[in-house]
Design brief:
alpha+beta, zinc, globular, EC 1.8.1.8, zinc-finger, 23 strands, 29% helix, protein-disulfide reductase [NAD(P)H] activity, oxidoreductase, Wheat Germ Agglutinin (Isolectin 2), domain 1
Amino acid sequence: MAATLKNLLGEELVQYNQSDDKQFQIETNKLDGKNLAFYFSAHWCPPCRQFTPILANAYKNINNEIKSKLDIIFISWDENSQGFDEYLKEMPWKALPFSDRDRAKELGDKFEIQSIPRLIVLSSSFEIITTNGIEEISIGSEEALIKWSEGKSLCWSREAKENEYVWENGICSSCYMKPLIGSRYKCINKQCQINLCKSCLTKIKHEHPLVEYLIPNQKYTLEQIISSIPDLLPSNNAGNILMKAIFENDIKPASTNRSRCIPFCGLRIPRKKKAVTPIVKSMGFYFSAHWCPPCQEFTPMLAEFYKETREKYQSFDIVFLSFDQDEDSFNTYRSQMPWPAVPFNLTDIFAEYFKLQGLPSLIVVSSDGQILSRKGCEDVEQHGIKALQTWSRAEKLTPPPPDQYKWTHFACDGCGIKPIVGEKYSCLTCQNYDLCSACAKKGHEHELKLQLQPNDDDHQSK
């Protein structure tokens, strides 16, 4: 084993000694029997500089027993020795000497390092424990280091049972199951980012209410879809709106004294209520963000059509779901909208359910849960206010005939007309080269391909 370890790392490693501000050498064979985490990083790399203090803090917090079983080795991708020397001062672990450039390259090739930072964790017998060390530290901090010292990955999963949904990017905040299998729950408190699997939900008493994620591709009624929203936020910031008020056409502030949770786990449960004929026949879920230029361009258009439609029809409504970078931006942006907003921290529940692909996005759902449109933004650009009026009747729009379809965001590279109306042709050789039908008939030096008119299936993630 010692020979293999030396083949990987050479005869000696270096470490920075803060007390005398010097580097000292350590024989590699002193790491025999330890699990090792190879930290590929560089001083010039901003993501590395951001992550290194997080890793260093976690390493300092573990006890000497853990450190006797696990060590971290810095593999430098710095451009010069000065950068390496300066960077090593931030690290309480060992490093491959900067002079051993060939070995650093060999290790990068061996573990297929394409970008940094990367943290590859190996057992004492050189079996890979995890290649996702960066993610595991970000999730579990010193808990990840403890698991690695035991020869285990922090994250784990299991086989999905029949009809269980696999949340590929979901992780349980308690047991670290990833991908998360089966029912998934989220805290509605904006200061809390906890996600739980069903098993941990029954074991943990959480201080805030939790809501269950909707299962993608499973059909729910509109009321079931939005049942996870406690209250809506009006654009004028005048208190909250009870979610049920949208359906009963009785918009009034939400009481601050309501309690709709099961004490031992915080799950929301519906209260019995009088039968009410829903006023809303359909709703548009508008995913948008203040920082997004196409969103900034589309929102005022949608707002004008919305206000005009609402003067005659109360059966169609819109809710805003934010992808803003912070709550201040969210509040500024929603103040420009005449419709209510979903609380800032609940967007991901709906983005997961609708399998959101980009911004802006307007997904329209009828009261019985039928998807009327996944390309609502494009429909509004094509049909104007007619789109909202059609949805208010819980009906789908009829696609325009091919010769009337507007390619809203495309200009003809031949005659310059924008938008292209009717057939659109793209060059298979030239990049981003489009022609209207008239210019395409004049010919082009390369083969042209007729682009098919988009439909809702093109906006459905598989």
